[in-house]
Amino acid sequence: MAPRVKLKLLDGAYGVARLQAEAPIPAWADGAGFLSISRTDDELSIVCRQERIPDDIQADTGWNCLKLQGPFAFDETGIVLSVIGPLSTNEIGIFVVSTFDGDHLLVKSKDLEKTFELLASAGHSLI
Questions:
Q1: Which residue in 79, 75, 66, 73 sits closest to 4, CA to CA?
Q2: Of 48, 94, 38, 88, nearest to 68 (Cα)?
Q3: Strand pairing category for 36-39 and 58-68
Q4: pLDDT reported for residue 73
Q5: Beta 14-19 vs 58-68: how paired, if at all?
Q6: Omega before 24 within 30 of 0, i.e. cis
Q7: HSE-CB of 88 using CA atoms within 13 angstroms
Q8: Binning pLDDT at 50, 70 and 90, where does residue 1 land?
Q9: What ranges in the chain are assigned the alpha helix state H?
Q10: Model pLDDT for residues 81-118, shown as the tens digit of each residue
Q11: Cα angle at 87 between 85 and 89, to 5 degrees?
């Protein structure tokens, strides 16, 4: 049986920005709401409230953020899959960010109502 997850819709609209791998972490990234910064050999990715992302930065905006209410143990399996499965099989694009205590699911604002329906049908609940 797949895990049942409680999700919380976070306030605001979010964006995913891409900077060059060697770019310093910009001051505009910090502020209210969820923030995730990831650096690889290829890029610096920043997920934050979209109003903070400058117009001249490459970004994909128009996302809403759902927090999977944890914390979840590191060895607990199937949590993210139970949430993204019903979405991906119904062609809802997602962006997932994991933290020490839990996971955050971003879905496009245009897909939010359908996301709620699909998650509820799969046994998940919004708080």
A1: 79
A2: 94
A3: unpaired
A4: 67
A5: antiparallel
A6: no
A7: 10
A8: low
A9: 79-88, 112-121
A10: 899 999 999 999 999 999 888 899 999 999 999 999 99
A11: 70
